[in-house]
Amino acid sequence: MSNMLEVADLGHTYGDYEAIGGLTFNVRAGELVCVVGPSGCGKSTLLRTISGLIAPSRGDVSLHGSHLAVVFQDYQRSLFPWLTVQGNVEFPLRSLPRAERRSRAAEALAWVGLSAAAKKRPWQLSGGMQQRVAIARALAYRPALLLMDEPFASVDAQTRFELEDLLLRVRREHDTTVLVVTHDIDESVYLGDRILVLSGSPAKLVADLEVPLPAERDQVTTRTDEAFVALRSKVARLLNVGGKPTLDVDKWAAAERESLSETVSS
Amino acid sequence: MNKFLQRWTVFAGLIVVWQLAGMAADDPFFPPPSEIVTAAWEWWVLEPQNVTEHILPSIGRLLSGWAIASVIGVALGLLLGRSDRAMEYAGPLLVFLRSIPPPALVPVFLLLFRGGTSMQLATIVFGVIWPVLLNTVDGARSVDVTKVDTSAVFRIPRHQWILGVVLPAASPKIFAGLRVSLSLSLVLMVISELVGTDNGIGSQLMTAQREFDYTRMWAGIVLLGVLGYGLNTALLAVERRALAWQPRSRDEQHA
């Protein structure tokens, strides 16, 4: 399989603060890769450099395709309240002829099951439906790579499961290449073909793991699958070892407890 | 209907009190409303040329001055609001210019334009552009980061960015500025007509005062009040339609 995205020695520093410390990885065409790392480890910086929103301090990002789309965590702010659902999906397509814009939007809304809501305003929909609008907008753009930044972190657990399955179905049906950035270990295992585990800041690649699960996944059976449980534990261990900030906090708390018990006993 | 009564009872009550007080006082400087209405009727309905010679030109100046200021203010505000550097250069100048009381420039504009409509338009435009401009700058700056990022990722063309994202995002603030400007336009329209012209509602006020025709003077003042109220109501209706997409206006409709 050919590579859709190649990231080589990507690094970024803000002033003295090093957010990403030299990342090298590829995303193959049609693959769904999850990037998982501790909170504040530079995942957002990674996403912003890949999407071209900021220029990295060093390294290269090359996309084998003309454009990419991003689904942001904050769907409420990402969608335009003055446009209808359909208008939002057509938003990146303004350069196309009207008829084609219409049909692409209608098609993408059908993929996410929102054809009936085309004329509504985004804020008239539930949170999960709004994120589906954002996904439809990204798909209608037909990106070479679909980037997702904590896409399901702002919805309730039930909706989250629905949206995860929707993403898996849509990307299978349309052979979309997807890179999901998340802090949720379970989500990364459930969604991914491959998981990139990052360390705490500066973000470095700790592991690049293939997910040994069948393409067809199910919220109940997959999550209880032995392979799922084993991989989840492995990622969790990797994150604790690699994620320095969490480790330091834990150590500090343990030391604090020890010193307290010492003073009490003495 | 109940709400209508509630809104107008105090207003109507005050007119009745004014009528009674005016009749009791019998003071030529403060005529009762009935006489004012009679004067207005004689002045504008029985002599319609007064409407075409004075009222319509005044409204025309007010609206064109306000429209020019709005177009320039919104266009300039959108550009300045999206450029930190431009605002750093222009900011102090804007604050300085805004601080000049517009009526103080009437003598300057009188010299520059030798009176007449262009002088009045200049006064109105210079006076009312600031609320629109500064509100637009404020609104254009407040486009939230996620929308900026979304637009950048989809690489939308510049005109779509300005007209399709910045303008609608700023529109609630812009409308707030437009409303302040509209009422200011009325004030400056009258002030600019008090000197250097012989037509318009403002000059009619001065003429009536000079000719000791206080009832007509009051009729002119009432007309200005009605005009201001009507314009504001019309703009509010436009605003409600233009900003119907806002979640808040929907809640109000449900209430």
TrEMBL record, chain A:
The reply on keyword Transport is yes
Q: Which InterPro entries match?
A: AAA+_ATPase (IPR003593), ABC_transporter-like_ATP-bd (IPR003439), ABC_transporter-like_CS (IPR017871), ABC_transporter_ATP-bind (IPR050166), P-loop_NTPase (IPR027417)
Q: Which SMART domains has this protein been placed in?
A: AAA
Repeat recorded as keyword: no
Q: Any idea which UniProt keywords this protein has?
A: ATP-binding, Nucleotide-binding, Transport
Q: Which CDD domains match?
A: ABC_NrtD_SsuB_transporters
Highest taxon listed in the record's lineage? Bacteria
Q: Pfam families, from UniProt?
A: ABC_tran
Q: Which residues form the ABC transporter domain?
A: 5-225
Q: Where is the signal peptide?
A: none
Gene Ontology terms, MF aspect: ATP binding; ATP hydrolysis activity
Query: What is this protein called in UniProt?
Result: NitT/TauT family transport system ATP-binding protein
Source organism (scientific name): Lentzea flaviverrucosa
Automatic annotation (TrEMBL), chain B:
Segments spanning the bilayer are 63-81, 93-113, 119-137, 176-197, 217-238
Q: Where in the cell is it found?
A: Cell membrane
Write out the entry's keywords from A to Z.
Cell membrane, Membrane, Transmembrane, Transmembrane helix, Transport
Q: What Gene3D superfamilies does this protein's entry cite?
A: MetI-like (1.10.3720.10)
The answer to keyword Transmembrane helix applying to this record is: yes
The membrane topology noted for this protein in its Swiss-Prot or TrEMBL record is:
Multi-pass membrane protein
List the Pfam families: BPD_transp_1
Can the keyword Secreted be found in this entry's annotation?
no
What InterPro entries would the database entry show?
MetI-like, MetI-like_sf
- GO terms, biological process: transmembrane transport
SUPFAM superfamilies given in the database record:
MetI-like (SSF161098)
Q: Where is each ABC transmembrane type-1 domain found? A: 55-235
Q: Which domain of life does this protein belong to? A: Bacteria
Gene Ontology cellular-component annotations:
plasma membrane
The record's family statement is: Belongs to the binding-protein-dependent transport system permease family.
Kindly give the PANTHER family that the UniProt entry links to this protein: ABC TRANSPORTER PERMEASE PROTEIN MJ0413-RELATED, ALKANE SULFONATE ABC TRANSPORTER-RELATED, MEMBRANE SUBUNIT
Q: Protein name, please?
A: ABC-type nitrate/sulfonate/bicarbonate transport system, permease component
Recorded source organism is Lentzea flaviverrucosa
**Lineage summary:** Bacteria, Bacillati, Actinomycetota, Actinomycetes, Pseudonocardiales
